[in-house]
Amino acid sequence: MSERIITDVTNESFDVFRMFDKQWALAAAGSAEDCNAMTIGWGTLGTIWGPATKGRSIVTIFLRENRYTLEYIRKNDTFSVSFFPEEYRKALGLLGRVSGRDDPQKIKHAELTAENIGSSVSFREASKIFICRKLFVQKMDAENILPEIREKMYANQPEHVMVIGEIEQYIDRGE
């Protein structure tokens, strides 16, 4: 598998809507020896906190505040967002349903291989990987969310936490 490692993503093109909404991804933090990951379907790519035409390239993800992976993201300076070929959908489903608190071997059970990449952890099987330096973490205040969304999404669930990370590396393994 050929691999391109890119540190400046400003000239890359991404189908963000398909990537997050249809393809899903894993958010992970820690090291290959001690990490946790969870499936995410909400995220953005963009720029922030810089002068015009020189903003920081970022990934923004949203995790419920009770998720174990969020604990790993909070205690580490970096995290990854990894996308996979379609044949790994079942593995991503498992990692979205099972908490690492309940099953510390869930990555092994999903038959994925954690590996240290740059300053974070990702997975050998991933085809597109963003290694991010954590810039911002904040719980979303449900009172500031449109009532029709709040009632549907947060009536019986904890709020999401927004995590913004500056892209340090983008690894493209094709597909």
Considering the chains and any ligands shown, give keywords for the structure.
175 residues, alpha+beta, Pnp Oxidase, Chain A, eight-stranded antiparallel beta sheet, two-stranded antiparallel sheet, 21% helix, globular
Commentary on this structure:
The chain has 175 residues and is α+β, with helices and mostly antiparallel strands. The chain has a single domain (4-172), classed as Roll (Pnp Oxidase, Chain A). The protein has helices at 16-23, 68-75, 89-97, 106-109, 147-153; strands spanning 4-6, 25-31, 34-40, 43-48, 56-64, 78-83, 114-117, 120-123, 128-139, 160-172. Strands 1, 2, 3, 4, 5, 6, 9 and 10 form an 8-stranded antiparallel beta sheet that branches. The longest helix is centred in the middle third of the chain and has 9 residues, at 89-97.
First-to-last CA distance: 10 Å
Q: Please write the CATH class name.
A: Mainly Beta
How many strands appear in the DSSP assignment? 10
Q: In the CATH hierarchy, what is the architecture at level 2?
A: Roll
Number of individual domains: 1
Instruction: Specify the CATH homologous superfamily.
Output: Electron Transport, Fmn-binding Protein, Chain A
Number of helices: 5
What assembly state would you assign to the polypeptide chains in this entry?
Answer: single chain
Biggest β-sheet strands, sense, barrel = 8 strands, antiparallel
Mean pLDDT, to the nearest integer, reads 95
Strand content: 35-45%
Q: What is the 3D form? A: globular
Structural class: alpha+beta
How do the helices and strands follow one another from N- to C-terminus? EHEEEEHEHHEEEHE
User: Which regions are unreliable across 5 or more consecutive residues at pLDDT < 50?
Assistant: none
- Indicate the radius of gyration in whole angstroms: 16 Å
Q: Do you know the CATH topology?
A: Pnp Oxidase, Chain A
